[in-house]
Amino acid sequence: MGPVEQSILSALEALKPSFLDLRNESSLHSVPNHSETHFKLIIVSDDFEGKRQVKRHQLVYGLLSDQLSGSVHALSMTTFTKDEWIDASWDIAESPNCMGGSC
């Protein structure tokens, strides 16, 4: 685990997540080996209760403002409340490999 990934995880502790899956997907893109530029996040938190998706994302973006203004180029996220996570069978699609260009 690299320093950027660790700083993202540390910042997200503020949400007291009951589930958190952070994946460094930089290797799927046209970046140097061992980069920390592209991440995928699945997070479950009571702090999302009563909030629409856009507000949940804004909350996460606010916590990660330092990382997102630095080396992180992309963050894909899926956010859930505990009830949403328990009550549904969520199929999170795998990210595709970059097809070149500025991925």
Polypeptide structure, described:
The chain is α+β, with helices and mostly antiparallel strands. The protein has one domain (3-87): BolA-like (GMP Synthetase, Chain A, domain 3). It has four helices and three strands, in the order αββααβα. The longest helix is centred in the middle third of the chain and has 11 residues, at 53-63. The protein is globular, with a radius of gyration of 14 Å. The mean pLDDT is 85.
Helix content: 25-40%
Distance between the termini: 22 Å
- Report the oligomer: single chain
Overall mean confidence score, pLDDT: 85
Please report the number of helical segments. 4
What percentage of the residues does DSSP assign to strands (E)?
A: 15-25%
Give me the CATH superfamily: BolA-like
Would you kindly provide a brief summary of this structure?
The chain is an alpha+beta fold and 103 residues long.
What tags apply to this protein structure?
single chain, 103 residues, alpha+beta, GMP Synthetase, Chain A, domain 3, three-stranded mixed beta sheet, 4 helices, 3 strands, 19% strand
